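Need tokens for this chain, all 1125 residues.
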Amino acid sequence: MADDKHEAATGDDVGSAPTFFKEHEAFLTMLDTIVESASMTETWTQTSVPADEEHTIRVMCSMLELYQEQPTCLDPYLERIVSRLMAVIEEYVHAYHESSAADISADDIAAQKAGVSAARMNGIFELVYILCKVRGYKVVLRFFPHSVADVEPVFATLWRHTANPGGSGWTARYVMLIWLSLLSMVPFDLESIDSGIANLPPLNPSTSSNVQASSASSGKALVDLWIELGQFYLRRSGCDMEGAAVMLARLLSRKDTSTTLQPAFIAWATHEISDAASGYTASTSGNDPSSKKGMAIGSVVRINGALRVLCHLFLAMDSADPLRGQIGPLLDVLQSDAFEQHSVTRKLATKAAQRLALLVLPPLSVTKRSDARPSARANLGAGANTSYPAESRAPGTIDSSIDNLTGVGHDSDLEISEEVETLRWSAAKGVGRITERLPRALVQEIVSAVVGMLQEETLVPATGLIDVSMTSEFSWHGSLLCLAELSRRGLLTPLALREAIPWVLRGLTYEIQRGDYSVGSNVRDAACYVMWSFARVPDAAAKSLFAEMSTMLATALVSVAVFDREPNVRRAASAAYQEHVGRHSAFPHGISVLQLADFFSVGNMRNAFVVASWRISEFSEYREPLLRHLCTITIYHWDLKTRELAVEALRELAPLSPEYMASSLLPEMMVLSVAENVPTRFTEDFGASLTLAALTAFIGCLSRAGWDIGGDQTRDRYFDYFVQALMMCPKPQSIVIDFTSFVDVYGITPDQHASIVHHVQEGGPGFSREGFVAALGALGTRADFEMLCNLITEGATVEIRRDAALALGQFSQRALAVGALLSGLHDRTVDSRGDVGSWVRHQSLCSLQRLFSADPRVLSNIHSDRDLALRLLGRILHAATEKIDRLRVSAGLLLESFLYGQCDTMSRTSGIDGLEADAVVERCIEELRHFIPNSQQNGCNREAANTGGRNACKEGINWVDSESAYEQLVYALSVSEESLRKPLFEGFVVAGSAEPMGKFAVNAVATYAGALPTADKELRPGWTVDGIIAELTRLLLTDKQTSKLINPALIVSDQLIEQGALLAASPDVWIPLYRAVQRVAFKLRAPQRLMLCVKLYGSLSLVSPEVARLVSESLLAHIGHPIPK
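Here are the structure tokens for all 1125 residues:
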């Protein structure tokens, strides 16, 4: 039962996320090992981590980092892991403190080094840091020891590691910093636990005076040293700074330090920022921007450290009383122009300003804002005095913070419209938190200001669609985030919602083209976030407003969920729709639509555009809005793929509402089709290739519909359009299909026929010849067929051979085309682009599939011709082992069509066209059917099987999954016909040399060979182990200059011998294989092949003593080979 549960939790599906810590058993075993090793006190004097322990820790860290995106999976084991590690660290820290606190003079360095090593626990500290990194230090810190007895040892150890780093790592210092942040909250006065730590070295010995001091701690209290240590780390970049900021914030927020030490520290932090930024401000006295001088890296680090500790401190403080008299200087510092060149610094300053404002503003009681959702802070402060005393109200502070975040009263450099996205997020959350504590009148002002930012630089033409072409995507993104934060806190009144909704709906389709790309996806995502937050508004009047506008909101969200280009935006719109359905149930057909447009359905672009949209359009409320979205926005998109999918979706949706299309949308599309706007007309690069492709597609539709085009003059003009498109368009395949329909319905003149042939023979600039070669299949004469047969084998370029294969698939004399397409399956051309011959092979497979599907007599004629049938079937089997997925899938489907085609249902005795089926061919087909099941007959959906995961097809072969396909197809090597076994085995050899899937092919052959007899003693059909070795030998003896099978044969032979799959062979078959390798290596000057020969020699030396002796002689001869590795 436990095993079943484990399988259900982990799963084998591609991309599935872990649901629990599945490596916990191995991890805990290794944890026991390293804890036992690290607990051996006699090893604590070592200056490094033992090698085996370090290796184990690296493996454990790798296991933990796998859960970076699902850290909660570690929670059931987190306490056990952390407590065991920290127990070792705690014991080590106490030992290190005792050994270092002895009365040793500062000059006696040797005596100090004889104690506990600072570097021994680096591995344990690194493991704890990885836990903090993956799960978060706040969660991991819960399981740290927090005894009062740990305070001084941990502090003294961290101090000494800081003063004399030695071999200690930064992870050790970070872990001790956050440990001190926990220990700083012990419920005792710090003075009562201060025993006066002695013998602490100075933190920065290089700057100390020549006068020798007995201790850096002389006369200083523990808390003063604590603050000094934290200030030291605030000036260092990295995780040390974050740990020191958390530690100091918790230390200074204690009751016994908040009134005495907190004001002085805030003054220090303010001075630290001002002093570090002084170099910048001193050089910006003029108005010339070019005179501005950036800050040094050290100054930026100092500012970041001070700002970071202020952020944590303001969050931990209970009141603003310690800030009396410092708010003004703090605001001046936080709004310094010195931060403008550093986004991290600006984000920290923004966060500090927010928290300062929240500290000054007490939370409003629930009764003060009856229409707002009560928050935790509001509940806690329900009895607070909302009339703010004069000394704590600080209206200038609030106004300045709000203005700085939203931009009211500023001309530039607004945080909410900042180019850095994280800064906009931080500013938006700050606006929401501060506004939540303001009176109702001020809330309305802020909401109006945010909506006003959306209205800037926009135009509302007579059509009603808001023009955003002149707006800034940064401003819109920040404003929408602000609206979302205000909405989810219940701060938008029905009046404000009614004003904001049109702008939010425009944000759902916000996109501005910039050259060959566009901006605005983050704006659309933020608009979906606003729509999501609308569903969480608690106000009853707002809910009634949403119910009134439910259809408009629902159709807008569904249109974006199925027709947006970006998957994250589609999923965000789906999530917003789900939130409304779950909370209000006002959306029409909400549950049904949500099932069709859920998170996974809209993730795939084609499924969202074509499948989900068509199913949702069955509901009348969504049909016309989806059509309008397609016809006014999506089909005019700048991205070609998006436009093509939009047109495909429109083809599916238009028949559902033909009256609406004809009366409303088609007239608008006709106007836009001749517009002056270049993207609207689909043109590019001063040409009209996209427009011509669209025009020929339109003519093809007219042809298939049998439309009356009006006579010869119109036909000639349409023919000229096809000629221009074939000359200019880089992908003529779709144009050829439309041209074929045009020729079948309207025909062409002899002169036009001659024109096509002339372009094929002479060629021209660009893509012209390739396009006309593909179009040649629509003409259908004997001369055209002979020309295509020559081109598929002797074409000047691989593109011409590919298009010739495409044309042969459309040829009317289908039986004649099979032999020519068979030659295309042998194309193995390789150039700088890679295996370009695969283009010809793939197109030949597709054309054969088209021929078999179009006319069942083709298969019947092939079955009657033994030579053609066996050669074709052999090449299809070879292609079924291809390393390229799309070729393997096409070959697999073609193989199933060959074995289970329509001719199977016809009479075998009478045949078709008077031809008898060949007995050998029929026997081979029957044998292959035992190994290759029919996917459709077994209830396996072909499309699902060949686009899904490994287990998508339970009965048939899943050709997409190479491992599964090889495991089943390899048993077809048992077929009795040798002319089929050889090409199939060659395919496995070629596939076995390719990484990463080559191991699957080799493993399949090894498994198959393991079940074979040594020799064919029973005279049964199929191969033996000796036969496999003989075939490998044959492949090695092919022509060394031209064969592309020698290297794969060397690789596969070596791997099969290493796996022990061929060791059962007869002794007399190894010598020919050795002689074949020896011949390949003779006078060989190709380094790669030579290394493969040497490697195979090493494997052959294991098969028998006689072969080992021969191999030794060959290896000795290669020692002096002139070609080095």
